[in-house]
Design goal:
The chain is 26% helix and 26% strand. The chain is α/β, with parallel strands linked by helices and 340 residues long.
Length: 340
């Protein structure tokens, strides 16, 4: 067994109670667990970076329809994280190894080595890059919607971690025109000037169908939908014949009392336009994740893609505040918390 000196305890964030309506800081509580040397086959990992996603809001709902386990009051929450092995009683992982795992919302993670996935530090510019939402963006844009050269593409909710990469992937796959929706002039500039979208619009600034039709006069060939609601309905209206829809999320109705998760679908339009609408879950295989990381590495080296992300400092102590801000749509790109 090998290790470095461990602290006596690890801080963690627990769910205090299931929220009804908006999530506030009162729905979280802090706790500590004792740290000790790992048992046979186990490792201790210092969490270095954690990503925050809106899916955690669904995990705070005991009646969620998503195929993921929900958080339990009084128990530490969990989330996607990368960290460094600091103690090992395993033949498969050594002290200093970089690993990805799902025991976030805490300073240190302890468990069987098989629950941690080793990553090659030299592959990407920094360990936080392994927390991109590229596997989801790639799976939806390429595997589900089959984006191809010459397509006109619409990405709703384009400034979140998935959408920001999905639009870039579409361009790299030869899309003729990529359009994104977002919520402010500042974010429009971010999409067009920093991420290379051809056009973007603020969904607050008038009927979405009118704005979308003006930007895509020949119709949409591919729709990557993160939002649902009015934006989905508008995309169906503006879709070209044979358009392919990748349904990733329904943010407009996912939280609170909104009905954006139940948009109207005019069946005759879908039939006469020969539309393909396909939802997909973000449960990725190791091969899909490793395949994305290799492709991401190549594009980064060639300076053909950027990783839009927001870094929140402060570690465990800042996680509840950062999550509330995330739900308030105060960030762009993937939200990363520096844990150590």
């Amino acid at each position: 067994m090998s290790s470095v000196e461990l602290p006596a305890v690890s801080r963690e964030v627990r769910l205090a109670a299931y929220p009804v309506g908006e999530v506030t800081l009162e729905h979280f509580e802090f706790g500590e667990t004792e740290l000790s040397a790992p048992a046979d086959g186990e490792v201790v990992v210092r969490n270095d970076w954690m990503t925050l996603g809106s899916v955690a809001r669904d995990q705070m709902n005991p009646d969620t329809k998503l195929p993921i386990p929900v958080f339990q009051p009084g128990v530490a929450m969990w989330g996607r994280t990368v960290g460094t092995v600091v103690a090992s009683n395993s033949d498969t992982l050594a002290v200093g190894d970089l690993v990805e795992h799902f025991s976030g919302w805490r300073d240190y993670a302890v468990g069987n080595a098989h629950g941690f996935f080793k990553r090659d530090r030299s592959l990407l510019p920094g360990p936080e890059y392994f927390l991109s939402q590229g596997p989801t963006a790639w799976h939806g844009m390429v595997g589900t919607a089959a984006v191809a050269e010459g397509d006109t593409v619409f990405v709703s909710g384009a400034t979140n971690g998935v959408g920001a990469l999905a639009g870039q992937i579409a361009k790299l796959r030869g899309a003729k025109r990529v359009i994104g929706s977002t919520g402010s002039k500042e974010k429009i500039d971010f999409l067009v000037e920093e991420l290379g979208f051809d056009a973007a619009f603020d969904y607050h600034e008038g009927p979405v169908a009118e704005q979308l039709a003006a930007l895509a006069p020949d119709g949409l060939d591919v729709v990557f939908d993160n939002v649902g609601g009015e934006q989905f309905e508008a995309a169906v209206q503006v879709a070209a014949r044979g358009a392919r829809f990748a349904l990733c999320g329904a943010l407009s109705g996912q939280h609170g009392a909104g009905d954006g998760g139940s948009p109207r679908l005019p069946l005759m339009s879908a039939i006469t336009k020969d539309l393909t609408l396909r939802g997909f879950a973000t449960l990725h295989t190791p091969d899909q994740i490793e395949g994305w990381n290799a492709q991401f590495s190549t594009w980064l080296r060639e300076e053909r893609i950027v990783f839009p992300h927001t870094v929140v400092e402060g570690g465990v102590a800042e996680l509840p505040d950062a999550f509330v801000a995330l739900l308030g749509r105060k960030y762009s790109g993937t939200v990363l918390v520096r844990m150590s």
